Request: fold
Amino acid sequence: MAHPDSQLYPEATGPAKVVVDKHSSPEPLVLYSGWFCPRFVQRVWSVLEEKEIPYQYVEVNPYHKQKSLLDLNPRGLVPTLQYDNKPLYESTVVCEFLEDAYPNHGPKLLPSDPYIRAKGRIWTDFVTSRIIPSFHRFLQFQPGQSPGSIEKVRSEFLDYLRQFAEAMDPEGPFFLGKEPSLVDFVLAPWAVRLWVFDHFKEGLGIPDEGKGGEQEENWARWRKWYIAISERKSVKEITSEKEHYLPIYQR
Reply:
């Protein structure tokens, strides 16, 4: 029997389709991607777009993977980057590589100040080790099947978002200040899909404006960051139509 995911919509839609078509021609740098992956692929994809690095986009069907991908990465995972006919993978590593390998393209996403760069890396790790696992615990929670309660997993997730907001530059709008950096793009793919909790889990639970109590300052800072990153062209334009994501999250 075919895996249910094998019936997912086969290609990007909406604004993401426009970007895919724009990057269909051969280039020395190749991104093996999956439009439906709202996670690690879109970290790399958004950085490529933000820095305006020329690349070829290759869509990967996870159940019929191209030989060219498997030759590069026998595990067949996406994102895989082909650079000078050599493979690179692991999304955060790839993003940092793009910053180092293409210093003359687009904005700098890793600050030159050693302390601020280290702070960005600390919070990049926090996103990967705390926020993202908590996102999935919340999304996958099933009453009667999962330990604890929906309130507990929601509270845990919100507390991680609050901690992230509390660590931001006070003015922003981005995490480290006026301009985006890598830590913003590391979280962006999950941030722009927070709507799934309204659809499947009866709400995310972030307080409405003015209703955050003692934490209102942090939630106001979160809202400012969220608007800035979700409206960023490099993030917004690689997003497909919402209806095609629903079957992925409904599993």
Observations:
- The chain has a mean pLDDT of 90.
